[in-house]
Each structure stands twice: as structure tokens, then as C-alpha cells.
Write a structure and sequence with these properties.
Order of helices and strands: HEEEEEEEEE
Distance between the termini: 42 Å
Strand order of the largest sheet: 1-2-3-4-5-6-7-9
Radius of gyration: 19 Å
CATH class: Mainly Beta
Mean pLDDT: 80
Largest sheet: 8 strands, antiparallel, barrel
Strand content: over 45%
Number of domains: 1
Number of helices: 1
Length: 204
């Protein structure tokens, strides 16, 4: 799977970040006794912005909530994300259409509810797209991808939270969108999944 090298890099960055955080901490936080990390996966359905159809696949999330921040920033964190859309193509799509991406960014959760938590996020990463022109020529292209999104999490059992996520992406200067010369594309879609929070934050 093409995302495997990116996942290793993401995990490495999170490990280094957490190690430096642990060294700097002089006293344990009263509200968090374990690692403020969440790992999860979901099922995604997207409009790939290539024709008028849909593309399905899976998503992985790794969230790290920043613990020692001013109260105004309570709820901010870092999210790493990887997605592979390679299944369930509608008949209006290219027969080999595939989109995958990996990267990360900032996520902010409103921490004012006990079992219900809305959030917003900004993402930047690296995306790959395989597709086929209308004349049968196939191509592979890669771009730096940015996106905005948000959603809601709901605690279902102790440390398990169900997530409904929406994301809108910007892929710049893609070659031949709908047989037109260079133009951006804007894939967008929803992901339904679940995360396990190793330490479900309890904000004061």
C-alpha cells in the first residue's frame, strides 16, 4: 500500500513529540493520567470531483491532544490522517480511479460537553491520484493537498468514541479535469468511524 511509508513517518513524529513532552513535564496533570492519544479508523465515501459519482475506501486517524496549554486553547491538538479511496466506483467514474493521501494538521475540539464533542480541523498533506483520460490514456499524478473539515464525536463506551467527519479538499493544478486543461479539483466527503482514546480528556 502506497501510504505505508507516510504512516511510519507520522508515527515517528508523534513518538518524538510525546517523548519531549514527557521530559518537559514536571508534575502529572490532575485531569490526565495517561497518554492523551487517540487512534481510530473509519469508512469513507467521497465525491472525487471527477465526473459525478462516488469513490469508497478507508481512513486512519491518530490524534494527540495538547495537555499543557492556556485555558483559551484547551481542546487543541494535532491530527495525522491517511486515506485510501479505491473501491465502489460509480459507473460515471474512470475505471481505475484512485485517490490516496497522508498528512496532518491542527484539530480543535470544543471540550464543554461530557459525551458529545464537535470539532474543526485544518489538514495539509501529500496526495496521489490515478485516473484515465477519456481517450483511454492512464496517468498518475501527485500534489500537495490542503483541506478543511469538521465533525462530531460521541462517547459510546468508556474510551471509545464514534466519529462522523466531513472534509473538503483542494488539489491544485490537476491536469485535465473533465477534459479541460489544468484546473484544481475539490474532492469532498464523509467518514464514519471510531477512535480509542487512551486517555479521554476531562477538561475543567
Amino acid at each position: 500500500m502506497r501510504l505505508k511509508p507516510y504512516l511510519g513517518l507520522v508515527l515517528g513524529v508523534l513518538f518524538v513529540f510525546n517523548a519531549s513532552h514527557a521530559v518537559a513535564q514536571t508534575a502529572p496533570a490532575a485531569t490526565e493520567a495517561r497518554l492523551p492519544l487517540a487512534i481510530g479508523a473509519g469508512f469513507s465515501g467521497y465525491n472525487p470531483d471527477w465526473g459525478q459519482g462516488h469513490l469508497l475506501g478507508g481512513t486512519l486517524w491518530i490524534d494527540y491532544t495538547l495537555s499543557h496549554v492556556p485555558s483559551l486553547l484547551r481542546g487543541i491538538g494535532i491530527e495525522a490522517e491517511a486515506r485510501d479511496l479505491n473501491y465502489g466506483r460509480s459507473s460515471t467514474e474512470s475505471p481505475n480511479l484512485r485517490e490516496d493521501l497522508a498528512g496532518g494538521g491542527a484539530i480543535y475540539s470544543w471540550p464543554h460537553y461530557r459525551n458529545f464533542r464537535p470539532y474543526g480541523k485544518f489538514f495539509a498533506g501529500y496526495g496521489n491520484r490515478d485516473a484515465e483520460y477519456y481517450n483511454g490514456i492512464r496517468f498518475h499524478d501527485s500534489r500537495t493537498v490542503t483541506s478543511v473539515g469538521g465533525g462530531v464525536e460521541y462517547r459510546t463506551f468508556r474510551s471509545v468514541w464514534v466519529r462522523a467527519d466531513y472534509e473538503y479538499q483542494f488539489w491544485p493544478d490537476m491536469v485535465f479535469k473533465n477534459a479541460k486543461p489544468i484546473a484544481p479539483i475539490h474532492p469532498a466527503g464523509f467518514t464514519i468511524g471510531a477512535l480509542y482514546h487512551f486517555n479521554s480528556p476531562r477538561y475543567r
